[in-house]
Amino acid sequence: MAPDDPGEGDTSDPGELLAAFGEELFVLLTAALPAFIERSVATRLQQAFGQLGPTGAEEAAEAGRAAAADVLPRLRQLLSTDVDLQRETPLGLVRRAIPHATAVLRHAGVPEVRRDRFSEERFPDDVYALMPANLGVLGDEVGEAAIAWGAAKAMTHRRRHAHGPGADVGPAGQGAPSTRPAESGVAPEVPAARAKGGWRRAGGRRRGGG
Hints:
Layout: H1 14-49, H2 53-79, H3 90-95, H4 98-107, H5 117-122, H6 140-160, H7 190-197
């Protein structure tokens, strides 16, 4: 069982929390990512042709398998990389799976969908509007695990650089100090907010009333 979510006054090693939440996120995405791609392809095929059929179902499933084979190894590498060396996010990697679905839909002759200007400019190749806005689109548990991982990453980064780039780094630092400014992508207040709210524990359980 992984430790509770980090909070104010918590003495847990944030590096251990980061590893625990990262493992949970990876396990959840191992199942959720191919299912999301398969579901996305199946939905667009049904909308275009009124039915899926055995061929469409197999093509959707194959798109999910191809996406998983492409993205999951990259995700595993990201989650095992030191926080100061990470140049990608789990959401960014999951979005790399969308071309696998797009290719199947194009081959099947599915018409492109109408999108708003913002989506067209930000994701010009997402012609079937499949790009997830966040990891919660892949499931509530995935979204919560992503928040927990991001909070632990922010805490790890904050503690490592709390006294400046020349500070001594203890076990929680996971390596040598960096001269780069904090770029956690998650507000430092998130861990405390999660603890006060009694949110989930790693492993998919919840505690308290939330």
